[in-house]
TrEMBL record:
Name the UniProt record assigns to this protein: Cytochrome C
GO molecular function, one term: heme binding
Transmembrane segments: 20-42, 62-84, 96-118, 138-160, 172-200, 220-243, 255-273, 285-309, 338-357, 377-397, 417-438, 458-487, 517-538
Organism phylogeny: Bacteria, Bacillati, Bacillota, Bacilli, Bacillales
Organism domain of life: Bacteria
Length: 554
């Protein structure tokens, strides 16, 4: 690509679209965080929810706002900016599609939120049967999914435009990564769209009497596991392609980064059964196969760990460090743009180990449905991913709003990350420990608090409440920084850092952009892992299969 065509800034019109997403995301963070505080308080056994508010309602608001709204809106906003920065401004048509997608998602979110607040949709963030919500909740979800397809199409279209203008050239790394994540998202959301439109909505409207619970859970988890990688990959975009620039180094290997993303596309989807290992009605042979595939999807994360260590060490050595760990001293610890995502990376080491425990079929029997799992995803999503997102927003927001990250805000951002680390160590640590003692997840204290075992869990639940309160302070700090960077920080130019490959690195293989090939293998793996078990479930699963047949006739 000629140097003159490489944009150094996000186009101002695309910046507006990106910021619109971030406003929704950070609003969700504030409200969702408040619900989290209420939950840990109730679970400590020392408080009761006021005004007749129901625990499951609060849990649903918390999970939906933080797990679904914050993530999806942040990711779409960040990906829009990343594509505009590296592949050039969107065309007017693509930008319009981006806005249509944004509004569909926002209207859908509002519809779902109203139903949850009216207590018509206390179905938790996984919303699968047999929990049933008001039809408006499902229509809202459908709008969110469709909106994300329209917005995702705009990003893929912008990549297509770049390819047409630069025939035979390797696409910019960040744009390539966004395309992989978007394609994965579209393939994955087909599953959740199917259960919502074909099962849950007709059931909620009263058109069918019953639905096949196992089919709905299976379609959900076909989507639910790639959902967690849809959250993770934007963090990996930052680690692979942005952090090297911030620390004054080079990308360790552009090809390795692309390969790891492609492996996520292939192996993220055919693994949903690892969330259903204890469910009857699925043949153990297929569970085993999907556990094997789950272990395959650990590989690109190990590649990422290797790559990050290599980047840090090479950068340190190029700046004169010696010895095995001398590079640690050369890292820019005073720079929030580095330190905040770095803490996220460090958290991913125990978080990933926990994931491997979950995926190990027999060990899953010990932890499934305990609060250990909640501890797991507060380390993965609520620490690794979210801290990286915070770290991104500290330069992205001022870049988009034409302001500067000041020294004071940089310092506050580092304090914020340490507050988060302390809070999460307490909260997630206590969750893991209580889970091993059998404390249940997703259960109101009023239901289990009086039981004989509960006494054993209470000290851990108090530790969770202490951790959760510290985390809430962390959320207030992020919001202070976000509002400052969006509206009050001094005007100026903040860099959108994009790393470069090592000089002399070979061009990445052209086959990496052969989408027919990758989509073909993705489809083959999905068909292999799901076709026979799904037919088996539909024909033989005992619960609710009548409902499925009723639907078939209808
Ligand atoms: Fe998970 C349940 C398995 C990763 C999120 N997971 C969940 C749920 C969520 C979630 C939300 O197999 C609950 C869903 C529900 O409500 O029921 N998970 C895994 C596995 C991985 C994994 C194998 N999960 C994630 C990520 C998430 C996430 C990422 C969100 C973003 N998970 C499971 C299973 C369950 C599950 C079962 C079901 C449990 C049950 O019974 O219900 C793997 O992807 C993990 C691989 C990661 C690694 C770590 C690599 C380390 C790196 C950092 C390098 C650090 C550096 C810094 C360079 C192998 C890349 C150096 C620093 C120094 C200080 C030295
Ligand atoms: Cu999973």
């Amino acid at each position: 690509m000629q140097a003159s065509t490489i944009p150094t800034k996000v186009d101002p019109r695309d910046a507006k679209l990106s910021m619109a997403h971030l406003y929704v995301a950070f609003t969700a963070l504030g409200l969702g965080g408040l619900m989290g505080l209420l939950q840990v308080m109730v679970r400590s056994g020392k408080f009761q929810l006021p005004f007749g508010i129901d625990y499951y309602q609060v849990l649903t608001v918390h999970g939906v706002l933080l797990g679904l709204v914050l993530t999806t809106f942040f990711i779409m906003g960040f990906q829009t900016a990343a594509v505009s920065r590296t592949a050039g401004a969107m065309s007017n048509g693509a930008r319009l599609a981006g806005w249509i997608g944004f509004w569909l998602m926002t209207i859908g979110t509002a519809m779902a939120a109203v139903m949850i607040l009216l207590k018509e949709a206390s179905v938790l963030f996984t919303f699968y049967a047999p929990l049933k919500a008001h039809p408006v909740f499902y229509i809202g979800l459908t709008l969110v999914i469709v909106g994300s397809w329209v917005a995702g199409g705009a990003l893929i279209g912008t990549y297509g435009k770049w390819r047409r203008q630069n025939p035979g050239k390797t696409s910019p790394l960040l744009t390539f990564m966004v395309v992989v994540n978007t394609v994965m998202w579209i393939v994955a959301t087909l599953g959740v769209a199917a259960t919502v439109l074909l099962q849950l909505l007709p059931w909620s409207l009263g058109l069918v009497e019953r639905v096949d619970v196992l089919v709905s859970r299976t379609l959900f988890w076909y989507f639910g596991h790639p959902l967690v990688y849809f959250w993770l990959l934007p963090a990996y975009m930052c680690w692979y392609a942005i952090v090297p620039k911030i620390i004054g180094g080079k990308i360790f290997s552009d090809s390795l980064a692309r390969l790891s993303f492609l492996l996520f596309l292939l192996f993220s989807i055919p693994v949903g059964f690892h969330h259903q290992l204890v469910e009857p009605g699925i043949d153990p042979a297929w569970k085993f196969l999907q556990v094997v595939l789950t272990f395959m999807v650990i590989i690109p994360s190990l590649m990422t760990a290797f790559s990050m260590f290599a980047t840090f060490e090479k950068t340190g050595r190029s700046q004169g460090s010696t010895g095995l760990f001398g590079w640690v001293k050369k890292l820019p610890w005073g720079d929030a743009r580095f330190t905040v995502p770095f803490i996220g990376m460090a958290a991913f080491i125990p978080a990933g180990a926990g994931g491997i425990i979950n995926a190990s079929h027999q060990l899953n029997q010990v932890v499934h449905n305990t609060i250990w799992v909640t501890g797991h995803f507060h380390l993965t999503l609520a620490t690794t991913v979210v801290l990286t997102f915070f770290g991104i927003s500290y330069w992205l927001v001022p870049h988009l709003t034409g302001r500067k990250l000041t020294k004071a805000m940089n310092k506050l951002a580092i304090i914020q990350a340490w507050v988060w680390t302390v809070g999460m160590t307490f909260m997630s640590g206590a969750m893991h420990a209580a889970g091993l003692l059998g404390a249940p997840r997703r259960s109101a204290f009023s239901e289990y608090g009086g039981s004989a075992q509960a006494a054993e869990w209470i000290p851990y639940q108090i530790a969770q409440a202490i951790g959760g309160s510290i985390l809430f302070i962390g959320i207030i700090l992020v919001l202070v920084i976000f509002i400052n960077l969006a509206f009050f920080a001094p005007k100026g130019e903040e860099e959108f850092p994009v790393g470069e490959a090592e000089a002399g690195e070979e061009k990445s293989p052209a086959v990496f952009e052969n989408w027919k090939l990758w989509l073909g293998i993705t489809a083959a793996l999905i068909l292999f892992a799901y076709t026979i078990p799904l037919i088996d479930i539909i024909q033989n699963a005992p619960i609710g299969s009548k409902g499925w047949q009723t639907w078939g006739k209808w």
